[in-house]
Automatic annotation (TrEMBL):
CDD domains per the UniProt record, alphabetical: CYP110-like
SUPFAM superfamilies in the cross-refs: Cytochrome P450 (SSF48264)
Family statement: Belongs to the cytochrome P450 family.
Top-level taxon of origin: Bacteria
Listed transmembrane segments: none
GO molecular function: heme binding; iron ion binding; monooxygenase activity; oxidoreductase activity, acting on paired donors, with incorporation or reduction of molecular oxygen
Record's protein name: Cytochrome P450
Cofactor requirements of the protein: heme
Species this protein is from: Richelia sinica FACHB-800
Length: 460
């Protein structure tokens, strides 16, 4: 059966486009080849079949046990950072078991207990900035989300070991985000190139140090067990498999690394993009402030979480430049028909979240930031899917939305910020996710008083 069509250029040209300009390349392909197309990135790798229509997305994401599967081995690309035992690298029963272990602390009442930490670390991170002095929105939001993740995972975000882990993680992610680092994942032969091997050694060293600190933390817990702790590490250490065996130190390390990496960089980027759009479009900021001020002083976290316009702004932020461009890959197990093409077993299907979010038939003027579209229409889970879907849907979905809303509410109601430069910022690849193509520079103009306080001051 012939594969869906795609570019006729050599595998190397396709790979370079994919590594260095993935979003534009996907758009160019969709324009020429439509709802389904094939990229051949390497001669010895299976061709990748890209889909983006909501119908095909639904078929792929809800079909995990029948014709398609999302096997952990297709996620090997994450192994250099997250290890072999991460939930991302598991399949079948083990994958389900790990998800069940990790989900509860990231949802419901347990999740809401992080509200104070989110407020506290947001206040601290913004207060550190000088008035009228530029700062990088992504660096500051990363400081917030990493501290919050440390609290959720370890139950601590202060202290020497915690601070060292945070610093190393930021450095590891920064190096891993470069496009050349992604190219190495696809072209391992390049690793011997002069210069690159030195940088890789340095990265390995940082990784080793981070691992040592994680193992020290695990060891400290083993020596001083405290059954009252509710952080994720404590829960993982208490868990037993079907044979009554606890997780090994290496398994624990891989899971911790997964949560720390997947759980902070993504949300940090989303918060930074939201700050960019809110301050680029004055009418958006004004509407948001009106909504936030209507809650009065010290609003309830649940009330913030439910605000319709804040929700619409967060959704539109995640729609226009989704931090995850793609769902995880799925491998065809039995022949399946997608967008009129019969796919053979062994084919690998990629859901392009980015392309779905830019389909003009779903999102007219898709390049425009327009939160109102989320107030006017309810999109299906296969039209709007920044967190993927199905058995592999992001386990941090609720947590990320909660954190994003609380951090933005805190910043907007307390400070008057401005963008240093109004020129357009575009998305680009940052490792295996996306981010802004240059720093989003902001300044604090003033400490803001809420409307109620301003009115009070005027009447006195
Ligand atoms: C705005 C923030 C975030 C975005 C946009 C995002 C996006 C995604 C996407 C697109 C996937 C792949 C889903 C699929 O293939 O169907 C994913 C998976 C995952 N995410 Fe997130 N994520 C975010 C925040 C978080 C947070 C806060 C955590 C942890 C606390 C987290 C942990 C994970 C994990 C562990 C997986 C793998 C799930 C599995 O294999 O079963 N993410 N995320």
């Amino acid at each position: 059966m012939p594969l869906p069509t795609g570019p006729k250029t050599s595998a190397t040209v396709q790979m370079l486009n994919w590594v260095f300009r993935p979003m534009t390349y996907m758009e160019e392909c969709a324009k020429v080849y439509g709802d389904i197309f094939t990229l051949k990135l390497q001669r010895n790798l299976p061709p990748l079949i890209f889909i983006h229509s909501p119908e095909a997305m639904q078929e792929v994401l809800t079909n995990d046990t029948k014709e398609l599967e999302a096997p952990g081995d297709l996620n090997d690309i994450f192994e250099y950072l997250l290890g072999k035992n991460s939930v991302i690298s598991q399949s079948g029963k083990e994958h389900q078991r790990q998800r069940q272990l990790l989900m509860p602390p990231l949802h419901g009442e347990r999740m809401r207990t992080y509200a104070d930490v989110i407020n506290e670390v947001t206040e601290k991170a913004i207060n550190k900035q000088q008035f009228n002095q530029p700062w990088n929105a992504r660096t500051v939001s990363q400081e917030i989300t990493l501290s919050v993740m440390m609290q959720a995972v370890f139950g601590l975000y202060e202290g020497e070991r915690a601070e060292k882990i945070q610093k190393l993680l930021c450095e590891i992610i920064e190096v891993g985000s470069a496009a050349w680092r992604v190219a190495l994942l696809y072209f391992p032969a390049l690793q011997n190139a002069i210069g690159i091997s030195q940088i890789l050694k340095l990265q390995d060293r940082r990784q080793e140090l981070a691992d040592q600190l994680l193992y020290q933390e695990i060891q400290a817990r083993r020596e001083n067990p405290d059954p009252s702790r509710t952080d994720i590490l404590s829960l993982l250490m208490a868990a037993r498999d079907e044979d009554g065996q606890p997780m090994s130190d290496v398994e624990l390390r891989d899971e911790l690394m997964t949560l720390l990496v997947a759980g902070h960089e993504t949300t940090a980027t989303a918060i930074a993009w939201a700050l960019y759009w809110i301050h680029k479009l004055p009418q958006v900021r004004q509407k948001l402030l009106q909504e936030l001020d209507s809650l009065g002083e010290n609003p309830d976290v649940n009330a913030i979480f439910k605000l319709p316009y804040l929700t619409a702004v967060c959704n539109e932020t995640l729609r226009i430049y989704p931090v995850g461009m793609l769902t995880f890959p799925r491998r065809v197990k039995k022949p399946i028909t997608l967008c009129g093409h019969e796919l053979e077993p062994g084919s690998v299907v990629m859901g392009s979240i980015y392309l779905t979010h830019h389909r003009e038939d779903i999102y007219p003027n898709s390049k425009q930031f327009n939160p109102e579209r989320f107030l006017e229409k309810q999109f299906s889970p296969y039209e709007f899917l920044p967190f993927g879907g199905g058995a592999r849907r992001c386990i941090g979905l609720a947590f990320a939305q909660f954190e994003m809303k609380l951090a933005l509410a805190k910043i907007l109601t307390n400070w008057e910020l401005e963008l240093v430069n109004q020129s357009e910022i575009k998305p680009k690849r940052r490792g295996l996710v996306t981010g802004p193509d240059r720093p989003i520079q902001m300044v604090i103009k003033n400490r803001r008083q809420q409307k109620a306080q301003i009115l009070e001051a005027v009447t006195i």
